[in-house]
Design brief:
This protein is an alpha/beta fold. It has helices at residues 17-30, 42-50, 70-76, 81-91, 103-114, 157-173, 196-208, 220-223, 233-258, 262-270, 272-283, 308-323, 326-333; strands at residues 4-9, 34-40, 55-59, 96-99, 118-121, 124-127, 131-137, 143-147, 182-185, 212-216, 228-230, 290-293, 298-301, 337-338. An 11-stranded mixed β-sheet has the order 3-2-1-4-13-12-7-8-11-9-10, sandwiched between helices. A 3-stranded antiparallel β-sheet has the order 6-5-14, with no helix packed on it.
């Protein structure tokens, strides 16, 4: 598959729609084989589509705000950009969806309309819990996959096994890691470490997850010793936010140190390019956003404070995930999936 149609939410996120439109333009320029279904208010998407040959408008009069209750908003704002985009994937009018909108609303709408895969258990078909996943830069110069990043605060042992299997598939298909090393986030690397829940997860993951190494610590999000770090949504989100907070603190402290005197200001000018590269690596713009694994379609969620570069990369990443067959590979990685 080469030609891919990506639905992009022009009113998702904290920035003005023009930021998203500029990002779409950049994506179209970077990849001649993508088409964009721009979803949002008629007065924005119709004009934009008329001016671009590979863009089609999808009018969405409703907008789900960041502070809306996610489930209530998805149920009541049926003509919102997020809901209509997810329905477009279900109907086959789009191959993937990118938005920097509310993570909760995106997860709820994608679960309701794109729908998760189902697995057979105790004679019944049960839905897979979608897992919010992204790749973080590590000290070895590569990327470490973190799943779940916050979609599922309360999970069962079998959910954690599927998160590991899906995250491993993501590492293979998207990052090109042939044999991913998988770790279970705990409070120590010894086998007996962890809560009662993670202790129950350990043997289950060891039995069902290829490449499972054992427990890992929060520092392993960036150590490069693991290719995939698996956690429940609560622990994963806390670990992610702590890592992001530490990175912001260090950058702020460095900036203050470099501005302290004339000499340090001159030093700052000499390494300005390198500092920008570090900041860009930590921003998340390079990957565009986090992906919801376990769905029957590609759904990518960008950071609310998005940028032109992030929208471009999110759109391109969504298209590449479709071309690489990520959805199919994720389904094949789990046991008992009913297609």
């Amino acid at each position: 598959m080469s030609n891919v149609r990506v639905c992009v939410d022009v009113v998702g996120g904290d920035e003005k729609p023009q930021v998203v439109l500029d990002g779409i333009e950049a994506a179209l320029a970077a990849d001649p084989d993508i088409e964009v279904l721009a979803v949002g208010p008629a007065e924005i998407v119709n004009l934009f589509a008329a001016a671009h040959a590979r863009v089609e408008a999808l009018e969405a009069p409703d907008i789900i705000a960041m502070d809306d209750d996610p489930i209530r908003a998805v149920m009541t704002k049926r003509k919102s950009s997020i809901v209509l985009a997810c329905r477009a994937i279900k109907k086959g009018n789009a191959d993937a969806f990118f938005s920097a909108g509310s993570t909760g609303a995106m997860t709820a709408a994608a679960t309701a309309y794109v729908t998760p895969f189902r697995y057979q258990a105790e004679g019944k078909k049960q839905p897979v819990r979608p897992c919010l996943t992204n790749a973080l830069p590590n000290r070895a110069g590569g990327l470490t996959v973190l799943c779940d990043m916050g979609a599922n605060p309360d999970v069962e042992v079998d959910d954690m096994v599927r998160f590991a299997q899906m995250g491993s598939a993501y590492a293979r298909v998207v990052l090109g890691i042939e044999h991913p090393r998988v770790g279970l986030l705990a409070n120590g690397t010894e086998d007996e470490k962890g809560s009662n829940f993670t202790k129950a997860c350990f043997p289950a993951m060891k039995a069902a997850v290829p490449g499972f190494v054992g427990n890992c610590e929060g520092t392993d999000l960036t150590s490069g010793n693991f290719d995939v770090v698996v956690a429940d949504g609560m622990s994963g989100n806390i670990a992610l936010k702590a890592t992001e907070g530490a990175a912001k603190f260090l950058l702020q402290e460095l900036k203050g140190a470099f501005m302290a005197s004339l000499g340090t200001k001159i030093a700052a000018l000499l390494i300005k390019k390198q500092m920008r590269e570090i900041k860009a690596k930590l921003s998340g713009d390079a990957k565009g956003g986090a992906i919801l694994l376990g769905l029957r379609g590609v759904v990518l969620i960008g950071h609310g404070a998005t940028s032109v570069e992030a929208v471009k990369n999110g759109t391109l990443a969504a298209a590449e995930a479709v071309r690489a067959g990520l959805v199919e590979n994720v389904a094949n990685s789990m046991d008992g999936i009913v297609l």
